[in-house]
Amino acid sequence: MTTTATARAHGVEATVHPGGILSSLSITTSALRRPDLATVILTVIDQATAEANTRIHHLLNGADPTLLGLPTPAPQPPETWRVQ
């Protein structure tokens, strides 16, 4: 069983698997000029992660996601790789 979710905003598109595992990232040329590009990328990844997590929890239909090595409901991507 696999699922992904895609979110896009301001020329940035991210597709992720549940738990925030990045599958693809697309950035338009115009988005590269944005001074807040890093923030936009993280926001788009967060949105896609939330959607992917919601989808997988719905597919599990009450099964304990930790039994499959999946995160508990709606975690965000790890803070350790984020630029502050």
Automatic annotation (TrEMBL):
Sequence segments annotated as region (Disordered): 63-84
Organism: Actinokineospora cianjurensis
Protein name (database record): YbaB/EbfC DNA-binding family protein
